[in-house]
Amino acid sequence: EADEMLSMGFIDDIDWILDHTPDERQTALFSATMPKPIRKLAEKHMRDPVEITIKVKAENSPNIRQRFIKVRQHEKRNMLTRLLEIERFDAMLIFARTKNATMELAEGLQGRGYAAEPLNGDMPQSLREKTVDRLKRGKINVLVATDVAARGLDVDRISHVLNFDAPFDLESYTHRIGRTGRAGREGDAILFVTGREMRMLKAIERTLKVPCDEYAFPTLEEMNERREEEFFAKIEEGLKGDLGDYRKAIQRLIEESGHDTLDVAASLAFLEAGKKGLRYENMPPPRKSRREDRPGRKDRVSRQEGKEDRRFAKDDHLQSYRIEVGEYHGAQKGDIVGAIANEIGLDPQHIGKIRMFKDHTFIDLPKDMPREIFEALKTVWVQGHQMNISIDKGRPRPGKGGKFGKGFDKRKKFGKGGKGHKGGKKGFKPGRFRS
């Protein structure tokens, strides 16, 4: 599994192993993608290799409604909670990019009262089977899974598929949404897209020949009406039970305390609603997407490599960082800019100079980076390698200094676009969608 070994940082080990194998041998490299390091490996160690490619048949089920929500990376979890509150679903399958993400998301949803569990390759097969069985029997309603763990998943009651993290290619996307709309039923597929993934959305629409509509969020009034309807339904269900002892207890309370019957009922409703409450007092408006906001606009900055353009002008509050990805790994400056911007929602205009070398790169980013963001960037993938970012102590930036919030934490400065790129974790390449 050449691409998996590359992703885990074992490319040098593969190279060493192949160097020490006999001249007379048969070699086969299996790779879901074909990045430059894998091609170089094949060219070096294989004689007249034959490349076998399985053609992806782009299929779209007419039973599946496809929608998207434009969201910044750091907003995804709050948006997920809001979506679960809005959507009426039987069971929802959520796709996350990593095993850790499946566990963290499932744990967070459990804390909010949802019957959610993870499904990933680190779980023993027996536990995975039990988890799927619990989903089938309605014991859990939300399953957070990786692509690998969800292969072959066939559960009729999955009414919704949410792409929490965008897929790497069209094949993954079609496989994901195919987990809903089973057995002739209708299904819903929802995709979270960051600003830099909008071109991927267009590629999906173009290849599948189907529009992906922007999610229409209900108004505050509609949300409250829906909550009340659901609350009334719970009360109606409770009225079907044996209420003998409860009626006696409430009757005694009213007689002894003199409270109004309606007040007692309202108090019980308040306790039942719990932390969620019965009505939303206010709700921030969803972020509107601009479908035309894509690479190629006239106001985009120049893409010429090495040219210092206007996005490098404001560098008073920048710090030099080192990342362990360079030219040897097949990376370009655009890959790095895209990966960082996509992961933490940082507008490219707040990324400074980039100095790329054979096996590492120096990049100027805002000073005083919050620890959680710094740690998140360490695990970001660029061309199959983790960035492993660290502070470049030998390259201080001139200027006045300042806080990390300068140019970073002011939300209005985010999402303005920037250079097109091939970055992201493992890098999303729009070209993979071409039929």
Topology (SSEs and partners):
Elements: H1 2-7, H2 11-19, H3 36-45, E1 64-70, H4 76-86, E2 91-95, H5 99-111, E3 116-119, H6 125-136, E4 142-145, E5 158-163, H7 170-177, E6 187-193, H8 198-208, E7 213-214, H9 220-238, H10 244-257, H11 261-273, E8 318-323, H12 333-344, E9 354-356, E10 361-366, H13 371-378, E11 381-382, E12 385-386, E13 390-391
Parallel strand pairs: 1-6, 1-7, 2-4, 2-5, 3-4, 5-6
Antiparallel strand pairs: 8-10, 8-13, 9-10, 11-12
Helix pairs in contact: 2-3
Total beta strands: 13
Number of domains: 4
CATH class of the largest domain: Alpha Beta
Indicate the percent of residues in helices.
Answer: 25-40%
Structure description:
The chain is built from 13 helices and 13 strands. The chain is of the alpha/beta class and 435 residues long. The protein has 4 domains: 2-45, no CATH class; 64-214, P-loop containing nucleotide triphosphate hydrolases (Rossmann fold); 220-276, no CATH class; 310-433, RRM (RNA recognition motif) domain (Alpha-Beta Plaits), CATH 3.30.70.330. Helix 7 links the parallel strand 5 and strand 6. The longest helix has 19 residues, at 220-238. Residues 291-314 and 395-435 have low confidence and may be disordered.
Key attributes of the depicted protein:
four-stranded antiparallel beta sheet, alpha/beta, disordered C terminus, 435 residues, seven-stranded parallel beta sheet, 13% strand, Rossmann fold, elongated, 13 helices, 4 domains
